[in-house]
Design goal:
The protein has one domain: UDP-N-acetylmuramoyl-L-alanine:D-glutamate ligase, CATH 3.40.1190. 31% of the residues lie in helices and 29% in strands. The chain contains eight helices and 13 strands. Strands 5-4-1-8-9-10-11-12-13 form a nine-stranded mixed sheet, with helices on both faces. Strands 3-2-6-7 form a four-stranded mixed sheet.
């Protein structure tokens, strides 16, 4: 089984109107979903100084997910104030955030090099390290989310095997964007399109996966769970279409519940 590392953001989403919260963050949602599907995954992140950091440690331990602590900082865990409107997530406010102090030491970089698959997102600030970090044969998966045009993206793209983006629909803009992104170096570009499913491009062929229309409870975690299931398919050696189907199946399950993982 391929060894995977998820790095590195964590936070909490709080719904004051509903009196509910959950531990989350792109890498946390990825790790929890990847592990639940049967994958071998390690989480690497920063821990803050509050009860939520302790809770995250316990939750990872309960799920048998090894934790590499980059460092412990005297700052609170990032907290997003959330709301739901017809099942769609709404970010109202964000405060705190121990992730702002992220920095990877030489020891951390050497640790990452031992994994077969690396999942990352913006809080890792991997543009600072990826040139020296990526190893021959190592598979890199990066979630750009809705950050389509940031300058630092071009530094990362030549080293990526799978570049994921979130967008609203299958239109001319996203197809042209995916073609240009593929030309910048990413081997496979995937757009997660919400109700319109997903679209992938490998430089030769287009792949389309229709969404399954179900009753939506909460859209938080839809993208993270899709990427986790897709990555699990990659770990099994499946092709793009099979991985997209895995992603759709998992994301469809997640949006029918409140939490972004099971």
């Amino acid at each position: 089984m391929k060894k995977t590392i998820a790095m590195s953001d964590n936070c909490i989403d709080v719904y004051y109107k509903l009196d509910r919260y959950y531990l989350t963050g792109n890498s946390i949602d990825f790790a929890f979903n990847y592990k639940a599907l049967g994958g071998d995954v390690t989480e690497m992140t920063i821990l803050g100084n509050d009860v939520f950091a302790k809770a995250l440690e316990e939750r990872l331990k309960e799920r048998d997910i090894p934790l590499r602590v980059l460092k412990r900082v005297d700052r609170p865990t990032g907290m997003a104030t959330m709301d739901l409107v017809d099942g769609d997530k709404k970010h109202l406010h964000f405060e705190g955030n121990a992730m702002e102090e992220i920095d990877l030491t030489e020891s951390d970089l050497e640790f990452v090099k031992q994994f077969d698959i690396v999942y990352s997102e913006r809080w890792t600030k991997v543009w600072r390290y990826i040139k020296e970090l990526k190893q021959p044969g190592q598979i890199w998966i990066y979630d750009f989310s809705k950050r389509m045009e940031e300058e630092k993206n071009d530094i990362i793209l030549p080293y990526l095997d799978y570049a994921f983006y979130s967008y609203e629909k299958n239109d001319e803009y996203i197809r042209e964007f995916m073609i240009k992104t593929r030309e910048k170096g990413a081997k496979v570009v995937v757009a997660m399109l919400g109700e319109e499913g997903s679209l992938a491009y490998d430089g030769k062929e287009w792949y389309k996966q229709e969404a399954e229309h179900v009753t939506v409870i909460n859209t938080v975690g839809a993208g993270d769970s899709f990427i986790a299931a897709f990555a699990y398919g990659v770990s099994l050696g499946e092709d793009i279409s099979q991985c997209m189907l895995r992603g759709k199946t998992r994301a469809t399950e997640i949006i029918q519940q409140f939490n972004p993982y099971k």
